[in-house]
Amino acid sequence: MSAEKRATTTTPPIRAKGRLFRVSLAGDVLPMVLAVALTIVRIVLAYQTPVTVLLGAGTEADDRLFANAALYLAAGKWLGPYGRYTLAKNPGYPMIIALCGTTHIRYQLFFIGAQAIACLAFAIALRPRIRSRWVRVVVYLILLYTPLLFTTTYFRRIYRDGMVIPFAILSLSAYIGWYLRRKGPVRVQLPWSAAAALGLVPLSRIKENFTWVLPFVLVCSLVMAVGWLKAARREHQGARGPIVRVALLVLPLVLVWSASEAVSRVNYERYGFNGTNERFTGSFARVCSDLSGIDTGEKDEGLWVSRKALESAMGASPTLATIRESVEGSWDEWDESFDGHEVYGDLAYWALRQGYYDARKNATARTASAFWSKVDAELRKAERTGNIAAKGGLRISQVAPPVGTTDLLPWARRTLDTSATLLRLDVLQEHLIEPGWKPVSPPGMFASGEVKMRVLLGGNTLVNGEVDDTSKKAAAVSAVDYHLGRVGIAAMRIMNLLLLPAIAALVAMAVRGRVKQPVESLLIALGLALTALAYEAATVWYVSYQLSVFSFDSYLLEVGKYSPEFYVVISMLECLIFAELAGLEHKHAR
């Protein structure tokens, strides 16, 4: 009877290159069929989900900035004529939109295709530890159907925050898979080097805060490199093997640097600015650092550049003082969004940029860079001579104010509280895609730009509050999105609640010797956990200014918008831990 049962669940053995493979219907074929079927469903659903083009008032530095850049890129005009917003942000996201337009690939198809590839990479990465194909398929589907991509914030809105999700997953998956295969031959490691490059290069160009992933990348690389060198020395091998392997480690980072240099070169040839963007590289970024570091004795951490600090800077910088009237006028305009007196957080830098460009109507990137270089030199000289008092502390970003010693404990507490609040997923649930949609800008405004973007994105867009000619289908698809998002959030909440007990169970099994090579999975889990906390700590510090003038709900809305990477890393951590337990790898313990 048992022989008959095996015959019904197993296909004839397959011989390949001298090795015998036995393909199981229940253990191999069925999970693959399920994965393919549900992948097709997810792709079709994403393809039919309409996206939103927002080009109305208030989007000049966000949606409209990316839309304009994408349209110019698609037309072969780089980022278009120079203006105050042209080089304000990295061009990676507009490049993706332009790529979709020139290749006639619908934006939603590119997005979900990238997500599917990234999720597949993570599932394959875990194979050395998770032998069960069913478990790996479940891991793949959990990430593919993440509720993040059933939200307006990360999927429907044409904005860059959502696009980091697949490339973040791919980048981390590449190094996890590489680490778990570090003892294998070079040919086994080569695909993971390629995957790392495919993840890191776009990730570094989409947003400016790319450095959050580097600690994980560098630690993995260092551990592997040291292991290879020790093994070569112990086994009296030549230097060629370790050199080739280390070269593969360096290659993705070299490509990241090359991509940055390529963008900087084009910007210099086109505009005379040598950098990827003006807000985080170049002389304006240095001035932002100077201003946020001025110590005026004010204790409000939400004030990155107070009026008092601005006045001190103008007193120390004759060059900055030449645009005093325009800058003060800009401050008066921007402070209306806050308390009517101060401009909080990084919005002070936008106010400063507006003041400069209002005063210098015909400014070019070259003249702007020269202007801010003079201001930077004058402010640094004033700091050296003691004319300006400087804050001390830890810099987590060039433009954010330093974290003082007295800020460390409150910052850590707020990070933990915010992380716990985000993991309840209430903020995420509020932004699930729903069938109904209200226009943000009055019908007719920016209509020509929205129509051009609709063509570039491949159709199926919401324009001026009205859906295209498939409104009934769009409403039905959005309803499915909403319900799948609710299911995903419910599942994610359960995983969040069980994460700590699952980690404790895995550690207990490891201590009792029931898990094979537990250090590997526990080190990866620790790296992911620290990466998530470090990312959220930086995000919390960056948006804490909201608490100075707005409600806690407003703060949560802002911090949630900038936290897709946090959600992604936590999801990968949970998949790793639960896969270890569900895969029953402890059966193969030493």
From TrEMBL:
The keyword Transmembrane helix applies. It comes from the Bacteria. The chain crosses the membrane at residues 20-45, 105-125, 137-156, 162-181, 212-231, 243-260, 490-511, 523-545, 565-584. Keywords: Membrane, Transmembrane, Transmembrane helix. This is Uncharacterized protein.
